[in-house]
Design a protein that fits this description.
164 residues, alpha/beta, Nucleotidyltransferase, domain 5, 6 helices, 5 strands, 49% helix, 22% strand
Amino acid sequence: MTIMGIDPGLAATGYGFLLKKGNTLSVIDYGVIKTPAGLSLEKRLCLVRDELLGLIEKYKPDQAAVESIFFAKNAKTAISVSHSRGVILMCLADKDIPIVSYTPLQIKQGVTGSGRADKKQVQNMVRLILGLETIPKPDDAADALSAAICLSQSSPVMREILKI
């Protein structure tokens, strides 16, 4: 089973693809989709769409985990990330890929066992769980992999409820 994790963003959208065989996870690919700040919002969203569709076509994920937006400080940032997240959800739905959304707290809990874990703890657990020598970079890619890990560890009962 191929699982895609996505950390939405306008400047940088993190992605990660994992292969799950039994209880074993291995990394297929990870990285970021970057959009130049000088482009209009519409053009940036088109870049996210085009790059994402290319990744979906290349890796053919069976399911996807998308981090939900939780911002309290900067409404402008939340809105731009929301635009990107909408494009991401649309692309996945258009390709009939089952989607699960996780809050940052749920992802931290799923990866480290604590919803209060800091970014470094989460990144180190991603490294350990996936058997990597170093923490995945950039941070957006590590966040996407953590979302994919969270989904990979959901119970069979939860997957049945979610129909994934």
